Amino acid sequence: MKSLEELKAIREKMQNQVGLRKEDAETTRVIVGMATCGIASGARPVLNAFAEGVAANGLSDKVVVTQTGCIGLCQYEPIVEIMEPGKEKVTYIKMTPEKAQEVIDKHLMRGQVVAEYTFK
Amino acid sequence: MYRSHVLVCGGTGCTSSGSQAIIDKLNFEIAKNGLDKEIQVVKTGCHGLCALGPIMIIYPEGTFYSRVTENDVEEIVSEHLVKGRVVNRLVYDETVENGEVKSIQDTDFYRHQHRIALRNCGVINPENIEEYIGTRGYEALGKVLTEMTPEQVIDTILASGLRGRGGAGFPTGRKWQMARNFVQDGGQKYVCCNADEGDPGAFMDRSVLEGDPHVVLEAMAIAGYAIGASQGYIYVRAEYPIAVKRLEIAINQAHEYGLLGKDIFGTGFDFDIGLRLGAGAFVCGEETALMTSIEGNRGEPRPRPPFPAVKGLFARPTILNNVETYANVPQIILNGAEWFASMGTEKSKGTKVFALGGKINNTGLVEIPMGTTLRTIIEEIGGGIPNGKKFKAAQTGGPSGGCISPENLDVPIDYDNLLAIGSMMGSGGLIVMDEDNCMVDIAKFFLQFTVDESCGKCTPCRIGTRRLLEMLDKVTKGQATMEDLDKIEKLCYYIKENSLCGLGQTAPNPVLSTLRYFRDEYIAHVVDKTCPAGVCKDLLRYEIEKEKCIGCGMCARNCPANAITKTDYIAPGKKLPAMAIDPDKCVKCGACMDNCKFKAISKK
Q1: CB contact under 8 A, A72 and B81
Q2: Are residues B443 and B514 in contact, defined by beta-carbon separation less than 8 angstroms?
């Protein structure tokens, strides 16, 4: 490697990897269930919607989008958990890309939990 | 992309409690369950909570498992990784509150910490340069080489207020400036890294080297650019095999990626780093002795001036900084001097890593902002003293430092405050002592260490410390007089003033500080011929209280010296004659007391 651009390329490639282990106080984590049950009920478009929406709204510094396995509530998949520092975890169920967009707009941007999609 | 990362600590502490076997088993179980494309196992550096090792953290959940064994791995894989169910019995109990698992960052141990030097330790795989780059690694070097002049680099370090983390606290920027300004003939200059960590109980440098070796390489290259050097040396103890291995890997990888070597980032800047292994002499942590050792000579100090910045390694201008100091540098370049200077106290900026040890619940590694009180470190981060014992003193700075007494628990820790209360920052070993520790014995322990490690070049240190040790020995045997105490104090100052290097100049500190804060204990040894903590064997006496003794004979059976025999006396209500200890035969091992079920034996 001879240039700063190459260093930057490696950094960006690895940031997603290492970012998963970030646990500082300011980071919000969006965790999408991506086990067989989740994928079968459409978790992948939901994951993509979150990933793109977070980037498009300039939230990349504060929000990490990651995936996880089955949490045992397969009938409610696709499940998305949002963990904000210092707050209770919020679990959204039966998500779609459209609902994901709404969650980004209301929850991640303005801090309002979209109660109608949460697990009760 | 992996959906989950399993981090297993590969630091020295966890490795010695079996973390490599856990990693092997993990990889096997993960492959067996067909998860190897989804889950990544990462061997990291130290997390700091060595007392709870081996440690395993599973992300993205951040589940913190402690004291994991090889036999737990199958359950962790099948429960946690396959089914997504946390294995509750292995979760670090501090992270569980009212049945809810909270973030490890919210526990008392981590809550007060602020990790700069240790920021990547326990987070990245130290044997993979790309993971380091992924946490903004080598970005600071790129910034320095393409956007800053060497003077700007030095100004930034100066403005940040960074001081040497090896002990003395000399301003790092000033050191660099001196070496930069020395342009006599345009010849070679050197950048050295002092990784010869030798204080008993200190292991912060080892953990940085094991957990984040690239940060040291990057910072040394930055220093090289700042002073105009193209060659660096890391002097590391051969007793740190994992650190040495990871440094070798890191240097090779940095070469492969063009981050060390010729024409870095196409800027024409050349920098290379060589490893030199030390054979473990304590004096080689002293800067002039260290450089003499790198040159291939016997590691002995020489008088200063000339200072290394003027005439150092191979008689060329050289800067020498400690591992932890370097670990701060890239962060200062990236985040700015103001960011760094905003942490800490007026004259001590940033954070300091301490190795917590001794009578404390959470032994391990902590990084706290300067100005944190000892009380916070011991009571909150350290989780207090085991078995409900009372705090007596904390020893900082190893054999060069002193003891801090309970009345100074609330002093904010920084370089100047520690000096003012008769101790010093040192490299950051922090040994906690409770009421069962004898302060004379502690002073003797550290002095024995310096006597063994004195290189012998100058008389005050070679002979003075030995005489001092002999006098302390007299105190612990109850043979000293009050005049001896005065003599001890006088000799301490004499050694401090006349020794050649830092080793001798600081060797009497443990004695002086204990004399200052715990003089009554010395007096008890001298006048009353007793050791209040019950440590000094020559002043101890074990006795059987005959009214409590039922005559079972357990003590006699366990006595290795056959010092316990039956008497003629039978206590009221007891059936057998009581036992008694012959003080002439007793070796004071305490076996009788440990084995007495009726608490009839006491130590005086």
Answers
A1: no
A2: yes
Q: Do B131 and A2 touch (CB under 8 A)?
A: no
- In tens, the pLDDT along B194-253 reads 999 988 888 999 999 999 999 999 999 999 999 999 999 999 999 999 999 999 999 999
Answer whether A66 sits within 8 Å of B60, measured CB to CB.
Answer: yes
Distance from CA of B360 to the nearest CA of A (A): 26
Which residues in B364-435 belong to E strands, given as ranges?
364-369, 391-396, 402-404, 429-434
B175 token code pair: 């050191």
Q: Quick check: B5 and B42 in contact, CB under 8 A?
A: yes
Query: Of the candidates B105, B135, B138, which has its C-beta nearest A7's C-beta?
Result: B138
Q: Which of B261, B254, B272, B307 is nearest to B126 (CA)?
A: B254
- Name which of A101, A6, A70, A90 is nearest B85 in CA terms: A70
The answer to whether the CB atoms of A25 and B84 lie below 8 A apart is no
Q: How far is A62 from chain B (nearest CA, A)?
A: 15
B78 — pLDDT class (breaks 50, 70, 90): confident
Taking alpha carbons only, the member of B480, B489, B479 closest to residue B513 is B489
- Do residues B326 and B117 make contact, with C-beta atoms less than 8 angstroms apart? no
Rounded Cα gap, residues A15 and A5, in angstroms: 15
Residue B121 tokens read as 């330790």
Domain boundaries, chain A: 23-117
Q: Are B3 and A67 in contact (CB under 8 A)?
A: yes
pTM recorded for the entire structure: 0.85
Q: For residue A1, name the pLDDT band (cuts at 50, 70, 90).
A: low
Nearest CA in chain B to A84: B103
Q: Which domains does chain B have, with CATH numbers?
A: 4-104 (3.40.30.10), 129-340 (3.40.50.11540), 351-434 (3.10.20.600), 439-528 (1.20.1440.230), 541-603 (3.30.70.20)
A23-117: which CATH number, 3.30.450.20, 3.30.565.10, 3.40.30.10, 3.90.850.10?
A: 3.40.30.10
B36 pLDDT above the threshold of 90: no
